[in-house]
Every structure is written in structure tokens, then in C-alpha cells.
Amino acid sequence: DLFTHDVNNIFSVINSSAELISNYYKNPNSTIKVEEFPEMIQDQIIRGSKLVNDVRKLFELEEIKYSIQKIEILDVLNLAIAYVKKSYAEKIIDIQVHTPDEKLLILGNELLRDIFENILINAVKYNENLTVDIVIKISQDTREENEFIKMEFIDNGIGVADKKKKMIFKKNNREYKGSKGMGLGLSLVKKIVESYVGYIWVENKEPMDYSKGSNFIVLLPKAI
């Protein structure tokens, strides 16, 4: 399944990096540049830890009923931003948040942070620019007479092709965003959002060209 596929990929990268480091120390005159391999191993360990955490929470969402309460969005969002920047400290990440000058409360729970972290991590991982630019726009919206907080996560990454825009949220999806696997993160995000009776979808940053970046849009029920 997808979990096994991703775990095998993680172990393969770690094993290859370890072998190259070992070969270098056996032959110091080798032309192999080992400086980047410890960073690659660390990145895979972070990826593996996140993958295990996502699987656990997917299982819990199917087995456990989480309580819903009023939550202030910006407090949770700031924690998620800090976590992602710390996890990818070697990258230049510029995150701008545009928000109304008021307290923004939604109906959710402790899983809200997982929504933000997974979307932000994808924006960082699937990005080939020297600087990862992410703009988060927060506004209010109405759908079928219900009030929502609308959050747009706009990045300058490699984008999502139109034919894959719905598939990336499926649990057993084996499709790829660019050349790398999306993992279980977005299926977890969709499941959490739907448990809040919210909505999530992805659009192009620029309407006619998906390769310029993505805009992940999340509607979360506003707490009255």
C-alpha cells in the first residue's frame, strides 16, 4: 500500500546515503561529496516521523470521535509556521499572512494544526526555487447560508496538474505531484476538514498555468 511504498523509499534514501558516507571514509581520496548526505538522512527521518504520525491520526479519525470547540486560528497557524521553518531550517522560507484585524474563531479541535502543517510542508517540499514563498490569505465567506473562515495557502512551487487536483486528496492515491510522492498528508488534511464540516480544494496560483504554483483553499466553519 501507499504507507509501505513511502516507508521503503525513506529507508532506501537513508541506506544509500549511509553507504556513500561509508565508502568515502574507506577511501578519503574519493571525489564523493558527503557534506549533503547527513542533511538528506535528517530530512528522511523527519519525513518518516511525519508519515507515522499521519497514519496514526488517520486511524484515530476513523475510530475516535474528537470533540469540537472554538479555536483561535492565528494562534494555531503561528505554531504550524514555526514548526515548518524549524523542520526545514536549511531552506529560505518566506511566509506572509494577510488577515483581517479581528479575532478569528472556528469550530475545530487539536487536529487543526495538522491541517496547516501538512499544507505548508507540501509547499516547501515541492518547490524548486531558492526561496520558498508562501502567502496565506484569511477572509470570511458564506456558502449555503453558513459562515466560514476562508484560508488560501498560495505557494510558488511546482504546482498540481489539473487531472491530479482531486486525486491528491485520496488516501490510497499513488499519483505524483511532479516527480515526488505526495504521501498521506493531504488525505489526512481532507479527512480532518470534512470532520469539521468544512471544504478543501486546490487551484492554480495563476489560472492558466499550474506550474507557477498552487493555491490550497480551506473553508472552516466560523464560530459564532
Structural class: alpha+beta
| Helical stretch tally | 5
Low confidence ranges? 174-182
Q: Major sheet, described briefly?
A: 5 strands, mixed
What number of domains?
A: 2
Strand arrangement across the biggest beta sheet:
2-4-5-9-8
**Average pLDDT for all residues:** 83
Structure commentary:
With 224 residues, the protein is of the alpha+beta class. It has 2 domains: 1-64; 68-221, Histidine kinase-like ATPase, C-terminal domain (Heat Shock Protein 90, 2-Layer Sandwich). It is 41% helix and 28% strand. It is built from 5 helices and 9 strands, in the order ααβαββαββββαββ. The chain has helices at residues 2-26, 37-63, 73-87, 112-125, 185-195; strands spanning 69-72, 92-98, 105-108, 131-143, 146-155, 176-177, 180-181, 199-206, 209-221. The strands form 3 sheets. Strands 2-4-5-9-8 form a 5-stranded mixed sheet. A hairpin with a 2-residue loop joins β6 (176-177) and β7 (180-181). α1 runs antiparallel to α2 (37-63), α3 (73-87) runs parallel beside α4 (112-125) and α4 (112-125) runs antiparallel to α5 (185-195). It is globular, with a radius of gyration of 19 Å. The protein starts with a helix and ends with a strand.
Characteristics:
two-stranded antiparallel sheet; alpha+beta; Sig_transdc_His_kin-like_C; single chain; His_kinase_dom; two-component regulatory system; 224 residues; 2 domains; 5 helices; five-stranded mixed β-sheet; Heat Shock Protein 90; EC 2.7.13.3; protein histidine kinase activity
